[in-house]
Every structure is written in C-alpha cells, then in structure tokens.
Specification:
Two copies of one chain form a homodimer.
Chain A (H helix, E strand, L loop, with lengths): L1 E2 L9 H24 L3 H28 L3 H32 L6 H7 L4 E7 L11 H4 L1 H5 L1 E8 L2 E4 L12 E7 H11 L7
Antiparallel strand pairs in A: 1-4, 2-5, 3-4, 3-5
Helix pairs in contact in A: 1-2, 1-3, 1-4, 2-3
C-alpha cells in the first residue's frame, strides 16, 4: 500500500517505483471496467492515472540519472529504468483500451460481452455523506469477509491511496474503487449511498 | 471465468477475447511475483502465457478479417483489433518485467523492495497428492472466507483455467496460482502440501 501524500517530485526512487507498480495494477482493471460499464467517468480516471504515471516515470528517470556515479551503479540502475519503462508501457496500453469509451464509439458487443465473463467486477462509487462507513476503519467494516468486497483504491481530491490498509478510516467525499461479486457490489452501493446501515 | 478446454484454433472471436483479457490480468500479477520471489519458475509461466497470448491474437486477427464483409463490419471489427492489440501489448510488457529474472541478473534491491509494499501477494503452488483439497470444490473449501486466499488460476498440464468458479473441484497435479495475505499464504501452503487437514 502507499499513500500518495507526497507529490512525485518529493518522492524517492523506491517510493516512485511502488507508486508506478500500484497504478499499473489498478489501471488495467479500470480500463476493462470502463468498457464494461461504458463509463466515461472511469475512462477519465484511466487518463488521469496515465498522466500521473508519465510524471512518475519522468521523476524516476531524473533520480536514476543523478544516482549513477560508477559503472556498477549505472548497470544496476539501468535495470530499474527497464522495469519502470515496462510498467509505464502497461499503463499506456490500458489507456488505449479505455480510449474506445472516450472516443464515444458504440462499443462493439463482442468486446463488452467478453468483459462480462468474470465472477468479480470492479466498480467506482462516491461515498455519500450519510453513509455508515464514514468514520469507520476498513477493519471495522469487515467488507471483505461479510460481503466479499475489496477496496482496491480510494481517491481523495487529486490524491490516490492504493490497497488501503486495515487501519484506513473512510472519510466524507472519498471516491472508492472496489472489486467484488455482482451481489456484493449491489449491497456495497446501498451502504455507500447511506441507504443501508447493517451488513 | 473461462476454461481453456479448447485450443485457440477452435475458439470463436469472443472466446478468444475473453481468454486474452484473463491472461492480461494474470500475467501482470505473475510478472511482479516473479521478481518478488526471484522465481524463474514464475518467469517461465509468464513466458508461456505470453506465447499463448501471441497465438490467441493471431487467431483473433484471422477471424476478424474473415468476418468483415461490409464497411460497417470492418469499422466495428477494427475496434476489436485495437483492443486486442492493446491487451497483447500489456502482456508483452509484463514479460519485459519478468525478463530480468530469466536473465539471471541480481535483481536490484530497489525493485524487489518496491514489490514488497503490498498487503496481498501472489504465489504459485503445486497440489500434493496427499492434500485434503483434492476432490473438494472451491465452494466447500471456503478458502476466501476462512483464510483469505483466492485462487486466481489453475494450470492442468498445458491448459489454464482462470478465475475458477465455485464448482471447480481440485484434482491431483493441479498447479495453483493464488492471491492472499502473507499469513493466509503460509496456511494455504500447508494445506496444499498435505501437512494440514483443518482450516
């Protein structure tokens, strides 16, 4: 898990790589979800994450160049650049996938039908001020064991928290990205919207 | 979920796309895991999946070309080719990530440290003939709710089953790819190795 409390320019090389890896995992899931739900809002999240990824990759490259003093340094650091470049490319292609939503084309039914062939789905929901979740920690909610829903990321304004820890406390205006079965997702939406107080 | 019971040459366009999407999600997780565990065995799985992906993409392209009779067909089908190409590229780059393991380089500590920053980890385990799991369905085992471990794929010889359904029955020689917390993974390994019969 990592909280993007810092802007990329204040992060060290390792923090940047952690962030890039987290984004690469989330962005692939989101790209497929944007098509599945024909959702421009999710496609926009993908674009935003891809911009963040580019910035992170730039900051990582700068740090890598500055850190290379000896030939040994340079050889080891070139590995990091290779991995970072591959991670960045994954996110580029995830954006290519979600672009068919942004381009406002009719999504070919073969594509959307294919994406339905999975037991678990990703969804995106804005926490309502009335939700029981507000003020509760992820541990207290026991969402995973009770309704089979996992929170994979939280967006607060422009900041993202990936794989929030058990201590994470839900707050007003959190935008949540979650993964769960169709049944779990329906229950979770009721909870997040403040229309259900027990689960 | 999809069982790769069929060889790609007997699958229809939708089945191929489902398979490609499933592989693209699994391969990114596996690529990071190969580095995390410095495991050539996992890096080899990544290579094998990437070969399968290439074959699927080829078969999809052939079907797409044959299916395009009118201009409307062609426009819609070109979308499918774009998405398939992006999916295929994701798997190429996942392989680039795991290649640093196959190349037998010392993995730079910054890279492996970065990958540890996650609560849930992927692991790969071969089911032992003595394991209690053999003959049980995924539903009966209740692995997800009891020990927090999710089976994300099963390999039987050269075939893969992604996101196995609750009805899936464990069999001798299954190679399992699972995701769970460190604690869950340790318990699961004991179960899979036949060293633990209750959980």
């Amino acid at each position: 898990m990592s909280a993007m409390d810092k802007r990329p320019e204040y992060m060290n090389l390792k923090e940047i790589l952690v962030e890039m890896k987290n984004i690469s995992e989330l962005i692939v899931d989101l790209a497929y979800s944007s098509i599945l739900f024909d959702s421009e809002a999710i496609a926009d999240e993908v674009s935003g994450l891809e911009d963040t990824m580019d910035e992170l990759n730039y900051q990582l490259t700068i740090r890598a160049l500055l850190a290379s003093r000896t030939r040994d340094d340079a050889e080891q650091i070139s590995e990091i650049l290779n991995v970072a470049s591959a991670i960045n490319n994954i996110s580029d292609h995830a954006q290519n996938i979600s672009e068919i939503v942004s381009r406002d084309l009719d999504i070919h039914s073969v594509i959307s039908e294919s994406l339905k062939h999975t037991d678990e789905k990703i969804f995106r929901i804005q926490l309502d001020d009335l939700s029981q979740l507000i003020g509760m920690s992820l541990r207290e909610t026991q969402l995973a064991s009770r309704i089979g829903v996992t929170i994979i990321a939280v967006r607060k304004g422009n900041r993202w928290i990936y794989n929030p820890r058990k201590q994470y406390v839900f707050q007003k205006e959190d935008l949540l990205i979650a993964r769960g079965t169709e049944e779990g997702n329906l229950i979770f939406k009721e909870i997040a919207k403040g229309r259900r107080s027990k689960w």
